[in-house]
Input
Amino acid sequence: MTATPSTESLVHDPNCIFCKIIAGKVPARVVYQDEEVFAFHDINPWAPVHFLLIPKRHIASMAHVGAEHAALLGRMLALVPQLALEQGCNPYPDGGYRLLCNTGREGGQEVQHLHFHVMGGPRPWARG
Ligand code: 5GP
Ligand code: ZN
Output
């Protein structure tokens, strides 16, 4: 069966800034990637460490997640502890990090490609 944009979510949305980053069409400082997952530094960091963890497949938001995405999201979340420490977050419990997923307009989501913010490092932070 052929997927069409009207019936299936696009694997890559050509108008999506994060899909362009994954494709290498927009530069970013890459933190990590594998077949399914991509991570890169936020262009406007709130904290000494601030990177975004995203699925390579275009999923518009957490509101679009269903049971079929459970394994992918589990893999993404399971990467956070290792990546956070590698990027300079201090160890728990005195260090740690904030894991944030803004969803929808009222949730403060600006980029419509599912992403987890990982923020950490010594305070004070610019925001948050
Ligand atoms: P949201 O408000 O959707 O949760 O967060 C989107 C985040 O993406 C913001 O923190 C913003 O700084 C970051 N961002 C937006 N455009 C770009 C970009 O082109 N490159 C990078 N590296 N980050 C971006
Ligand atoms: Zn996208």
